[in-house]
Amino acid sequence: MNEQVVESTEETGTRSARSRRKQQNREPEEKRGRPRWLSELLDWARTLGIAFVIVLLVHLFVFNLSTVDGHSMEPTLEDKQWLFVNKIGYLIGEPERGDVVILEDPMDSEGKAEYLVKRIIGVPGDTVEIRSGRMYLNGEQLVESYTDVDIEDVDYGPQKVGEGTYFVMGDNRHLGASKDSRTFGPVSSTLIKGKAQFVIWPITHMNKL
Fold it and tell me: 193 catalytic, yes or no?
């Protein structure tokens, strides 16, 4: 009686082993049954999908390219130049005086995002004033080596820059040449999208800002 049980157990184990081997053999056969072109297509689709996600994340959170539209930042920047914009810097830090930034136009009322490129003049807590063509920051005249003329517009301020906002201006100080914080006031930090760090095109004008 015992011998029969042992023999039955061995037979059951043998059949289970054979069943597992058949199942293992069937899987490669199923894979081999897939057309080669379909496997390659799926591999390409997977690779492109991963690449797209990486590019999207980089564009949203790390950097992007921006084109200068207009003359409000002359002589520093010229129309149609391409800028390398660092976006991750302001996720881990704060804008500073002198930074050239890309920001959403605070006066845009049509729901379509328009972007401006400006320079940060005043940070939270600063007092900004324009008097007799000169810029004053916290009561002291600001030396602006990036401009080529005195400010031709009317006097402005003094204006205290509030918490979480920044006073921005274009480097072009000719009359009516720049729409900036003199028109729409200090801008919220949430509108500032990144710091323009390099001019990358045209190559002859490539330089660090």
Answer: no
